[in-house]
């Protein structure tokens, strides 16, 4: 299809979709309205289960099955990346050379690392109380480890990042979520039911299974993101492809 | 354990299996990982079959509120799984096809990522969980989540052979187009949430019904956007472009799953959303929905058949035949009545077996000869009589030879949709079945003139308008196979036997008929999910073998064989037919083109619904 | 101007599609897909907004003392963001392999799959 024809199709299609979306926009309830029936019920249900952060209650209790799917998407994407960015036959690994780091960068990164790690763990642990939770905290934890790459070099990062262990922990996080969900079955409740005591409102131990599921997600996200970044960094830093190979050979 | 309680486990068991395989995969030898993968997949299949068998009647709808969040007075905060016969049956079909694909893949992939023996079975299990979750959920946003799960895993599986230039390109196009479709669906979900304040299918349907009268712009937009993503997955024209690119390059066991069930799940989603949400007085009027599905269905069927006939790349040929049959399924759905739906269900069941078996046969050719090119393989298949026989039978079944289930499904759709639909069905089956038989006659029987030149030395120029199937990398361990392992022959044999059984077992027909009655019962679904009211839908005559259907099936098969013979006898053209050039050029493999067509498709769909 | 927030979501979706269709670089195209997806975040969050509402988190406000915005759309958006990030990662890893095998990331120069 020529570029001109594509632009014509795009223009006609885009115009149609624009009209469709505009019609929808004018049919929507006015912005900032007070009618949110599901939201009101969710707030009520969260308070009834002593979970201060309603969003965590929705994610890990009321609609915990969504989060199971979401976590599995992350799990699948990490696994997919491991497969897609594997070292192929025509590629080899070359350990990267150490690169000098400017002292202020090094100092700042080394200082920020433990602080960031701590913040990440805090965000995971307080998911049921304050904004945040396993997903957000997990990403912060994973990022904090990579400050070592900035502060020192890739080999230093590799020493604290045995990818195999993180892969196992990633799987363990996924399995833990399922096992907590299945444990509810043993008590006679439905799958993913909140079967633990709800605890005292606005304390760390409130929310029943919410903190447990939050922690499982935190482990999975932190480890999954580490593995994910490891695959991309390997491609950028370590894996070298032979020049005579790919293009031509792969295309024949 | 009650039937309802098994529903979440059908999703959870494969997910857990994937976690175990990834966790233990570093220490497991390869065969152990594969056996473990098969076991988990089969366990989910057992659960799904148990749940289907233990249901009190074909019209029952076991309902499981996850986390115990039962609604009060029709209002709740939880997610619901609904195990009606059709959803559960699809989950069972998925769960049976997955062990078949894993068994077929026994000798596959010489290079799993190092120390990751469990990666491939784990991905397949995640794929299974995504499809089962999508089939069972009764919540629109949850359906989107599982839709994305099956998408993400499918992109990775399609690009599994990263050393193949075509594989990674096809997977990328697949990923971009399907993600865009999914986002359109999510926009539609947002609109429905704004209007109704609900996310469950039954709740949204009930809220829309509270305001009867014609649909306004918002409801129409929401319908169009939600259905767009599902039709992208179902590869309806003009959202179909990704399908051939992805199916031609995915590893064969993955093709079996993509063509056999994933595409059909897009149709299932469309039907489910229509009947639960939009079929009531506040939804889309039936004539509008009928028009939209019918026009897209006819376009899809005709275009798929034309493109199928043009192919010499065997996997692309099968991929376009899937597009053509999707069109027929859409025509069946467009009847918007239990009869049409029952026909589609039977057709989908049998089509899954036939199409997966055909892909399995092509996989054998690929692994034995390193090619999937119809012309280059001329006569080479003579040494594989068993595979040839399976391929031929598959072609006949695709063309609609009674008593295969494909013929039954088609006959029922013809009867439900009326006169001209019969002509369309016969035409499409004859052309797609004929294309398969033509390829089979050339490859396995060596009929017709031998193509000139010993397997053309020169590669086609980079700007050739055609993807041939020459010089593909075999997918099996240790390069080309010297002999075909039994597992690769047993699997397609069993699959074809299954397709035959769909046409022969009378209990299946009556069961599907009642299940279709329940599926199309909008009010019954709402009552069962929201208030736990069991209601028997009005019975309609179950699908059956009509004499006319048998005769039309025989006619289609005979025409397919005649087309194949005529085509084989004609001199072989190395160049594709000029007449179809403009059509072929649209299938450019260019992601920008596909996105432009996506927008045009949304516009077309909206114009048809209004 | 109470439709403006909704229209901005529609605009994001369309402009993302335009970028995807005319892109000359696959990394840019994956970015455009992320723009399309951000339309869904914006739409969900604007739908859930309540005038004068604050975050639905009751660790520092008493329940009922202030209106809160709809927590459900916030949870959906969180799910959506995670999905978007993972899809982007997966697509980018495919782009890396496309770049290696085809030695280009310009979709106009990819010519392996035609007809």
Give a quick rundown of the structure.
With 252 residues, chain A is an all-alpha fold. Chain A is built from ten helices and two strands.
Structure characterization notes:
The complex is a heterotrimer of chains A (252), B (610) and C (115). Chain A is mainly α and 252 residues long. In chain A, 69% of the residues lie in helices and 2% in strands. Chain A has ten helices and two strands. In chain A, helix 8 packs antiparallel against helix 9. Chain B is globular and about 70 Å long. Residues 454-464 of chain B have low confidence and may be disordered. In chain C, 64% of the residues lie in helices and 0% in strands. In chain C, helix 2 packs antiparallel against helix 3. The interface between A and C is large, with 58 and 55 residues.
Silhouette of chain C = elongated
Characterize the largest beta sheet of chain B: strand count, sense, and whether it forms a barrel.
2 strands, antiparallel
Order of helices and strands of chain B: HHEEHHHHHHHHHHHHHHHHHHHH
In whole angstroms, the N-to-C terminal distance of chain B is 47 Å
Class by SSE composition of chain B: mainly alpha
Tally of strands of chain B: 2
Membrane topology (chain A): Multi-pass membrane protein
Organism (chain A): Streptomyces caniferus
Main location (chain A): membrane
Protein name (chain A): Na+/H+ antiporter MnhB subunit-related protein domain-containing protein
Topology at a glance:
The complex is a heterotrimer of chains A (252), B (610) and C (115).
Chain A (H helix, E strand, L loop, with lengths): L2 H25 L9 H12 L5 H9 L1 H21 L6 E3 L9 H23 L8 H18 L2 H6 L3 H24 L23 H29 E3 L4 H6 L1
Helix pairs in contact in A: 2-3, 3-4, 4-8, 4-9, 5-6, 6-9, 8-9
Chain B lengths: L2 H22 L5 H25 L8 E3 L14 E3 L2 H20 L14 H18 L3 H19 L6 H32 L4 H9 L7 H18 L6 H7 L4 H27 L7 H25 L3 H21 L3 H32 L15 H15 L5 H13 L1 H27 L40 H19 L1 H14 L2 H10 L15 H23 L11 H6 L4 H19 L1
Antiparallel strand pairs in B: 1-2
Helix pairs in contact in B: 1-2, 1-4, 2-3, 2-4, 3-4, 3-10, 3-13, 3-17, 4-5, 4-10, 5-6, 5-10, 6-7, 6-8, 6-9, 6-22, 7-10, 7-19, 8-10, 8-22, 9-12, 10-12, 10-13, 11-12, 11-16, 11-22, 12-13, 12-15, 12-16, 13-14, 13-15, 13-17, 13-18, 14-16, 14-17, 15-16, 15-17, 15-20, 16-20
Chain C lengths: L3 H19 L3 H23 L22 H32 L13
